[in-house]
Specification:
The chain is α+β, with helices and mostly antiparallel strands. The protein is about 25% helix and about 30% strand. The protein has two domains: about 120 residues, Chitinase A, domain 3; about 140 residues, Roll (Chitinase A, domain 3), CATH 3.10.50. It is elongated. This is peptidylprolyl isomerase.
């Protein structure tokens, strides 16, 4: 992410970059962009926040590690005692509901106390967290049992509101994606929208088959830096461009049982043969539905680009191909 994107994000939050960084606990430095003067966060409180975590690598001055805005999913954070002086919890205790700030933390200390290894290829030893506190549930003098019940109700209420919003805006997300990408889609009776770029051969997969395919799954919204918002891919180049590349993943065509894939993907793959290429836009009812799963929120439309490499019949080792 370029520095300009961070500035634009700060502006969108109503922040001001005029303040100088101040010295906090340990190695932490911070800049408070906005303070509403509400009670500060304390140990035991429960907060809802949005944030962006970046590090400086040898190839990118603002490499994004986490961005709740791209994920369209705020974080819910239980405030515990600080693990070390200058950790994120100590920074959050400088803020109250509605406040915004950026914290610069020492990655060596984070690795030592959290057990999470540092990213590779770092140019500096600092991680930056740009945080907006959305809501705070203060523990006060509540006994643990009572506060746990309050936390559960708080989370359920916020999560329900998020889901209702996603449900309402889903059709608009799909329409916006189609319009912005100038797609001439065909809409199936199920609601699946698709574009076939290559039909492939005459062979069609059935539910008992295993399909060999290259694919990329993404959300309809782009990331704040303008790149595709990819959540899974079999393509190494796409993974690197999307910032999700992992050395532990083999980026090769994947063999997947057709019958175990989301309904929209099943329908789309059955429209092409081996060698075929298709873009599918799935409404959530054909994807992960009202429950979501992993990085996918409830009521989230998805886009899949698939190239079918082979169809493996039951008890047959070799894929059928042209």
């Amino acid at each position: 992410m370029k520095k300009g994107i961070i500035i634009l994000l700060a502006a969108a939050l109503g922040l001001s970059a005029c303040n100088k960084f101040e010295k906090g606990e340990g190695d932490m430095t911070y800049k408070i962009y906005k303070s509403d003067g509400k009670p500060k966060i304390q140990d035991g409180d429960y907060v809802k926040l949005n944030g962006v975590q970046t590090v400086e690598t040898n190839t990118n001055p603002d490499s994004v590690m986490v961005n709740t805005y791209d994920n369209e999913r705020p974080a819910f954070f239980a405030i515990s005692k600080s693990m070390f002086k200058g950790d994120l919890a100590s920074g959050l205790k400088l803020l109250g509901e509605g406040d915004s700030a950026v914290f610069k933390l020492n990655l060596d200390s984070m690795e030592k106390y959290s057990g999470q290894p540092k990213p590779k290829g770092l140019k500096s030893n600092i991680a930056s967290f740009t945080i907006k506190i959305e809501k705070v549930l203060h523990k006060g003098k509540d006994p643990d049992s009572i506060f746990e019940a309050k936390k559960r109700l708080f989370f359920e209420s916020e999560y329900k509101a998020l889901n209702e919003k996603n449900k309402v805006v889903e059709p608009a997300k799909i329409a916006k994606y189609v319009a912005e990408n100038d797609l001439k889609v065909t809409t199936a009776p199920s609601g699946l929208q698709y574009v076939i770029f290559a039909p492939g051969n005459s062979e069609r997969a059935t539910l008992t088959d295993t399909v060999l395919m290259d694919y990329t799954g993404q959300f309809t919204n782009k990331k704040s830096n303008g790149t595709l918002n990819v959540f899974d891919t079999s393509n190494a180049k796409v993974a690197k461009e999307a910032g999700i590349f992992s050395e532990s993943v083999q980026y090769v065509p994947r063999s997947l049982p057709l019958g175990q894939l989301p309904q929209g993907v099943i329908q789309g793959i059955q429209l092409i043969g081996v060698g075929g290429k298709i873009k599918m836009i799935l409404p959530s009812r054909l994807g992960f539905g009202e429950n979501g799963g992993g990085p996918i929120n409830p009521f989230t439309p998805l886009v899949f680009d698939v190239e079918l490499k082979g169809i493996i019949k039951p008890n047959v080792a070799a894929p059928l191909s042209n």
